Structure formats: C-alpha cells, structure tokens
Amino acid sequence: MYYQLTYRSRATQEITTEDIIDILRKSQSNNAAEEITGCLVFNDGYFVQLLEGEKDVVKKRFDMIEVDKRHDTIDILSEGESLERQFEDWTMAYLKLPDEAETKLENQVKSDLKALEEAPENPNFTSKVFWYNVHTLLDEKGFYRKE
C-alpha cells in the first residue's frame, strides 16, 4: 500500500528557471533515497504535484515543501492510499510548457500526459484529483489563469 498526496501551489514572483531546475535536481536525488515517486507540473506560475511513497516519508517531504520560500500559497488537494504507484519508475517527473509553446509541441505533451493518466489500472481518488488539476492548469480557461 502506498500513500499519495496531491497539492497545488503558486510560485513566488521571484522564481526563476534556475529555481525550478534546482527543485527538480534536489527532488530526484532526495526522492530516490527515500523511495518517493511523483510528478511535478509547472505552468503559468503554478505547480501541481503528486507525491507517493510511505506515508510518513511523503508527509515529511511535504512539510519541507510547505516552508520552501519558492511557494507562495500551498493547498493540499487530496491525500490517500493507493494499491499502486502512478509514477513507479520516476523519482520526479517534470513538465513545464514553454511560455510560447508551439501547438505541435503542446499537443504532443498533452498526448503524453493522457497516456500517463490512463496507465494505472485502478486509479484512486488522489490520482484523479491530480490529473483533473493538471488538465485545468493547462487549459487556457482554467481557474489557474490570471485575469
């Protein structure tokens, strides 16, 4: 049995590409050592992330994320148990669409995400919440969009 936690956060205005690369590198290294897997999606100033592993380890990792100054507002969207990992072989998957993504690239990324979304045989509620928020984040009319 695995524990999954999905959250969203708004990046601080000072966040840079280097900050995101730093987050990714540290996540991959730390998560491998702690057997945490997951996916981080960043677009238009927002993060949506799913973390999975042993409950106490994932909670400890999330506690560290909550105090990270690169996140302005953090909301847990869902948490719960799962029979399988959504991102079994990924210490941290990452997606950021370019600011001016070409339609072809954007369609390919969305297609790849769709394949990942459909991969688990028994998706649980936390996984479904994660994918709903990823779609909303990438949708031009979603609630993540600034007015």
Report on this structure.
This protein has 147 residues and is α+β, with helices and mostly antiparallel strands. It has one domain: Alpha-Beta Plaits, CATH 3.30.70. It is 41% helix and 28% strand. It is built from 4 helices and 5 strands, in the order βαββαββαα. The protein has a 5-stranded mixed beta sheet with strand order 4-1-3-2-5, with helices on both faces. The longest helix is centred in the first third of the chain and has 18 residues, at 17-34. The protein starts with a strand and ends in a 9-residue tail after the last helix.
What distinguishing features does this structure have?
alpha+beta, Alpha-Beta Plaits, single chain, 5 strands, about 150 residues, 4 helices, five-stranded mixed sheet
Query: What is the gyration radius calculated from CA atoms?
Result: 14 Å
Number of helices: 4
Strand content: 25-35%
N-to-C CA distance: 41 Å
N-to-C SSE string, H for helix and E for strand = EHEEHEEHH
Counting DSSP E segments of at least 2 residues, the number of strands comes to 5
Q: For the report, how would you describe the main beta sheet?
A: 5 strands, mixed
Examine the coordinates and then state which fold CATH places here, giving the name of the CATH topology. Answer: Alpha-Beta Plaits
Number of domains: 1
As a percent range, the share of helical residues equals 40-55%
Parts with pLDDT < 50 across at least 5 consecutive residues: none
Average pLDDT metric:
79
